[in-house]
Amino acid sequence: MDYGTLKEKNETRIIIECFCIIFKFSIIKVAGQSRKRGKHMISLKSLLRRADNMLRGGLRKNIVFLHLPKCGGTSINHAINCHYQTLDLRTDNCSVSLSAPASSNVVKLINQTDYPYDTTDDYPILKLREHLLLYFLSLQTNRCFSGHFPFSETAYREFHGKHAFITVLRDPVKRWISSYFFNRHKDSDHRKIEQDITMHLRSPFGQSQGYEYVKFLGGANKAGDYTSGQAIDRAKRNLHKFDVVGFIEYQEDFLYQFENRFGVRLKLEKRNRNPASESYRKSIVTEEIEEKIKAVCGPDRVVYQYAVDNFVKADRQCRK
Known about the structure:
Layout: H1 3-36, H2 44-56, E1 62-66, H3 73-82, E2 95-97, H4 100-111, H5 123-139, E3 144-147, H6 153-159, E4 163-169, H7 172-185, H8 197-202, H9 204-208, H10 212-218, H11 229-239, E5 244-247, H12 251-262, H13 278-284, H14 287-296, H15 298-319
């Protein structure tokens, strides 16, 4: 073995030993920080991920994640936030997730109006969420903002250069069914449904669940118009303003697009599971009921199919 080779091996060994010392010191430091903050000890898995983020740089781009209800957003948001975390626990505070119950309660307090769980007049709530989005983006201290907020032309115009906008959709019929059973059987009182599925389908609230994509992607509309051709076209146009548009049904395509755009691979874990089992849901949703749900979801089905054609099929064609 020549002197040059031996020297290189020694240098490599020294670098590895130094890294191990630094890593052990960081573990002790992180453990101390977590105790001071009253948190549970961080798992080894989390420590390794945090160390990897420090070595590789983690997620560098700031993100605005428009979390459409019952589209896997809780799992996606967690996966995104993991890529911001380092061995410095202060990075855990770089993300903001909007609380839907809290924002609804704020509007109740301001307007002194008790909005029932099945209200379809949610314009004041949506506007407050948009204003909160603008507030947190204006702070310029947050790396990621997520929540059930409507698409904001103002936020896009003023902050798109510094933040990437992403969203994830799901088959509208499956989304409607998931939303109904989740809100029917959850423990929380926020928008908890008391009706059986047949009554819910006929109710204004149940009908409104068929245009969630038009509402959130198109933006809050004071007149409550989320079913017209104009409203649907607005949602379609806004889709093209997102840096990444993903789909639950095409998860691998979403993961590929995210990694290609931001340089990190998301690891999705199922969170916020539906309290109603899949077998129970299937026993309730007959073919007749499913056909009625499809009819209710007409506006969202148009937006969804447009999105699949433009962001899945078109992307696959480009990759060929």
